Structures are given as C-alpha cells and as structure tokens.
C-alpha cells in the first residue's frame, strides 16, 4: 500500500515552494566541510590535551558528525546535496557515504521505498518503529548494546558477510562482489588512516574514528529512528505518521545534526535540501495544517513516549533487535543511520 500524501501546493504557495526547493552546491559543500572540520578538530583536541574528558567529548562530537555524514549522504540519495547529478553523487559517495561504510546508490533504492510506503505494511523501515512503545528496561538493554559496540559489531559483521558472498561462488565472483559492496569504503578508510598516520596520530583511527562509529553513532541512530516514526499518532495521516522533534544546541551538537530533526517536513517535501527544512517548518506552522502536525518538544520527550510500556510487561528477548531482524542485503545503519530518513 502506498502512503497517503498531501500535495505540495496545498502546503504553501508557488513562491514559497520555489524558495525551499532551491539547491545550492556551496551550501552542501559547506555542510560536508563543517562535519569534517569538527571531526578533525576533535582529533586535534585529544592530541593536544589527552585526557578522559577530551576523549569522551571527542567521541560524542565525532559520532554525531558520522551520523551527520550519513544525513548528507541521504541528501545525496535525494539528489539534493549539489546541483548536477555527477557532482551530487561524487560528494555523497566519497565524502559522506564511503567514510562511514555506506553506499548512496544502494541506500537510495532501499530508502525511496520507505517514502513510498511510510508506516504501511510494506514500508521497509516499519521494523524500526513497530516494536514501540517498549519498557524502560528494554530500552536500557538496547542502549547498553549500542554504547558497548555490540550493535555496531553485529551490523558490520552482517555487512562483511554480505560482501564476501556465498562460499559456493567462484573466487572471481566473490572478489567482484566484495569490491562492489565494500571496496571503495575500505579505500577511503585506508586513506583516512594513512592521513592520520602521516600527521603522527595513527591511534586516532581506531580510538577516534572506529570507536565513535561503533558506539555513540549507534546510540543516536537508534534515538533518531525512534524519534522519526515510533509511537506516532496516525500511520495513515501524512502529518501524523512522521514526527518533527525540536532540538536545542546540545541536541544538534551531539544527537541531531544537519536539520535531521525536521523529519515531518522532509517527508512532506522530500526533494527539499536539508538546510531549507527549517524554513519549511516555519511556513507550515503558520498554515492551516499546523495544529495537526506531529511535533515533540525534545528528544527526551520522544523517548518518554517510546518507553511508556509498563515495566511489568517487560519480556527480555521478546522483541528481536533491529540488527538481527535487518535484511542481510540492506544498507547497514550508517548504515541504517540513514535508513529511516
């Protein structure tokens, strides 16, 4: 079943639509540069002031920027990162997707099905929202798996096994499949490691690139997935089957970078680049549909809704984790870091 939709012209004027649809290559490049500047700046901070506080701060910032790169990859999948298909794909792949072991084209094929069937039975992302609400102990167990790297390990393991192919395949076929699935990602990460090593901080790759990727990014990817579609009021109403969550400075820094919190606006107008979503929100909140829009005041408020199941209904192991239930061939959350956008 296709998801119900509202016509763009029923949401805003032609002039407003023209305004928010406008794409800017320099803005897309600036967001990519911002993400990498924070990543490299955080590494430099730890190199200059090595202590537990700066390390934990760097893990939080870098993990959020890794999610940010996945968000910008998502914009590339929608053709919104830059003007021109070739430049859009080049920036999305080499500077956003490959560093976090994702792939824009494979993600696009998967993700557009989510937009076509949002919160319907054939939505490939329904698996991310359907189990909610859950109990607080259940969420704590998920948080522990995420922050300790168990979720990240299972996702990478599934991704690697998918890349090496079937044992019965000829070696040439397996090698070709591996290159197609993971080759460019490994090349980009090798370049990143070599660059850090040349700068005298080789240790930053395992400690300040892979560690955030496997831990904090997993935590906030789950939070983002929950905020976007879990416990929404009406799965058949396009203004209420997706959620926008207000985000303050700290939430934008550590949890919700690059306007990802404006998810309702993205679903209503999915061709709008991320840096124009706040403007879409401003327009909609002055319009006739404002009262129906599903908007929550914070990510903490969303998590309270998502963990509202009574504790006496807690059944450890009853809800199969997203990792185990994920399709083997799907883009793994960097993944599914982008899958629910």
Automatic annotation (TrEMBL):
Keyword annotations: Membrane, Transmembrane, Transmembrane helix
Presence of the UniProt keyword Membrane in the record: yes
Ranges where the Fatty acid desaturase domain occurs: 49-287
Species of the source: Afipia massiliensis
CDD domains recorded: Rhizobitoxine-FADS-like (cd03510)
GO MF annotations in UniProt: oxidoreductase activity, acting on paired donors, with oxidation of a pair of donors resulting in the reduction of molecular oxygen to two molecules of water
Bilayer-spanning residue ranges: 28-49, 186-205
PANTHER family named in the record: DELTA(5) FATTY ACID DESATURASE C-RELATED, FATTY ACID DESATURASE 2
Keyword Transmembrane helix: yes
GO cellular component, one term: membrane
GO process annotations (BP): lipid biosynthetic process
UniProt name for this protein: Fatty acid desaturase
């Amino acid at each position: 079943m296709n998801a119900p939709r509202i016509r763009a012209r029923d949401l805003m004027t032609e002039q407003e639509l023209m305004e928010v649809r406008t794409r800017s290559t320099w803005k897309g490049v600036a967001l990519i540069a911002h993400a990498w500047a924070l990543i490299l700046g955080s590494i430099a901070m730890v190199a200059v002031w090595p202590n537990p506080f700066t390390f934990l701060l760097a893990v939080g910032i870098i993990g959020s920027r890794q999610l940010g790169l996945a968000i910008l990859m998502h914009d590339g999948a929608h053709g919104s990162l830059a003007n021109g298909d070739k430049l859009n794909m080049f920036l999305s792949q080499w500077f956003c997707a490959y560093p976090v072991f994702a792939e824009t084209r494979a993600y696009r094929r998967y993700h557009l099905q989510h937009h076509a069937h949002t919160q319907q039975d054939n939505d490939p992302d329904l698996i991310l929202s359907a189990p909610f609400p859950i109990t607080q102990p259940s969420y704590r167990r998920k948080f522990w798996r995420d922050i300790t790297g168990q979720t990240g390990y299972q996702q990478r393991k599934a991704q690697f096994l998918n890349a090496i192919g079937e044992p019965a395949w000829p070696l040439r076929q397996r090698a070709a499949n591996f290159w197609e699935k993971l080759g460019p990602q490994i090349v980009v990460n090798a370049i990143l490691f070599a660059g850090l090593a040349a700068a005298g901080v080789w240790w930053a790759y395992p400690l300040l690139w892979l560690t955030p990727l496997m831990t904090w990014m997993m935590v906030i990817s789950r939070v983002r997935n929950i905020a976007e579609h879990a416990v929404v009021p009406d799965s058949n109403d396009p203004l209420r089957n997706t959620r926008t969550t207000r985000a303050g400075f700290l939430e934008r820094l550590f949890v919700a970078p690059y306007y990802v919190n404006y998810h309702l606006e993205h679903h209503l107008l999915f061709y709008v680049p991320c840096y124009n979503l706040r403007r879409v929100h401003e327009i909609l909140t002055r319009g006739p549909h404002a009262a129906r829009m599903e908007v929550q005041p914070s990510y903490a408020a969303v998590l309270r809704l998502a963990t509202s199941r009574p504790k006496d209904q807690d059944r450890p192991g009853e809800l199969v984790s997203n990792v185990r239930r994920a399709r083997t061939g799907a883009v793994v959350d960097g993944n599914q870091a982008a899958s629910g956008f």
